[in-house]
Design goal:
By secondary structure, the protein is an alpha+beta fold. The protein folds into two domains: 3-130, no CATH class; 141-260, 3-layer Sandwich (Rieske Iron-sulfur Protein), CATH 2.102.10.10. The chain has helices at 3-34, 39-52, 62-74, 95-130, 147-156, 178-184, 190-194; strands at 141-146, 161-163, 168-172, 197-201, 213-214, 219-221, 228-229, 235-237, 246-247, 249-251, 256-260. It has a four-stranded antiparallel sheet with strand order 2-3-4-9. It has a four-stranded antiparallel sheet with strand order 5-6-7-8, with no helix packed on it. A three-stranded antiparallel sheet has the order 1-11-10. The structure holds FE2/S2 (inorganic) cluster. FE2/S2 (inorganic) cluster is lined by residues 204, 206-209, 222, 224-227, 238-240.
Length: 290
């Protein structure tokens, strides 16, 4: 699933949630705003009115029934006295109250939609921020310039060219070592070797320190625990379990050099020595063990 699909799903989910919130608010506000009564309430009111009516089942009013009872008991005719009804007259809903309810409805709907919009934007931004990009920088194919410029950079760096964006060292791979190198290095490394270049990952295979070049010995020498590697990253000493890891190099027809930092090629086993390069001067750090 790519980033676009994830963002579309997040937006769709937020829109559905917003629609649900909108619908819920509309229903609840409708009930309050129109003053509508539930069926149960209507039935209860009807039965209460029937209970309070002053009309007896025979058709006589309660006052007439009461007067007849008094006459029957006392033998004196009494005029029925009608009592005032206790029913509360119906009052139509206040139009202003209805207006307030509509305002509440629109206010809440607006706030809900704004919240849904902000939530959608935040979710999309969060997903986009976390989603790994492979469009440049370490972990992807990093352009380090034109071939001639890389060669010039190695010469001006006294044998070492550092590409910070690729976190890699690029050095010359001797043409005379190529027959051995083609037997030892994996296929992805061969285009670089055949062009006389090799790229080393700066991370020490021992415990991960950044390995610097040593201009006097013309090796790489790790300051953390003293691991040493020749100029093409093959292990010469120290506690590292293998040579420096590598990145494949690619060359365009226009002469641009690319380091594939998404493909880490495991360093050569201890004892590999395709170039036969020995230290060319004093070491920068002493190897702690060999
Ligand atoms: S991290 Fe380089 S030698 Fe230990």
């Amino acid at each position: 699933m790519n980033a676009t699909a994830v963002i579309i799903i997040a937006i769709a989910a937020a829109v559905v949630l917003g629609a649900l919130a909108f619908t819920t608010l509309a229903r609840r506000t409708d009930v309050r705003g129109a003053g509508a009564l539930s069926g149960e309430t209507v039935r209860r009111d009807a039965s209460a009115r029937a209970a309070k009516t002053d009309v007896a089942p025979s058709g006589a009013t309660a006052a007439e029934v009461e007067a007849a009872g008094v006459a029957a008991r006392t033998g004196v005719a009494v005029a029925p006295v009608e009592k005032e009804s206790s029913l509360t007259p119906w009052v139509p809903p206040d139009p202003d109250a209805l207006g307030v309810s509509r305002r509440q409805f629109f206010n809440r709907a607006t706030i809900s939609l704004m919240a849904a919009g902000i939530g959608t934007f935040s979710a999309a931004a969060f997903v986009a921020f976390l989603w790994p990009t492979k469009t440049g920088g370490f972990g992807s194919k990093v352009s380090v310039g034109r071939y001639d410029d890389v060669i010039s950079g190695i010469r001006s760096g006294n044998g070492f060219f550092y590409a910070p964006e690729a976190r890699a060292w690029i050095t010359m791979y001797p043409a005379e070592a190529l027959p051995k190198g083609e037997k030892v290095y994996e296929a992805s490394m061969l285009p670089g070797l055949q062009k006389g270049l090799i790229a080393q990952y700066q991370k020490c295979p021992h415990l991960g320190c950044r390995v610097p070049q040593c201009l006097s010995s013309q090796w790489f020498e790790c300051g953390c625990h003293g691991s040493q590697y020749n100029r093409v990253g093959e292990k010469k000493g120290g506690p590292a379990p293998r040579g420096m890891d590598h990145f494949p190099l690619a060359f365009s027809a226009a002469g641009d050099v690319t380091v594939d930092t998404g493909t880490i090629v495991r360093g050569q086993p201890i004892g590999t020595n395709t170039t036969g390069q020995e230290a060319e001067g004093p070491h920068c750090v002493g190897a702690s063990e060999h």
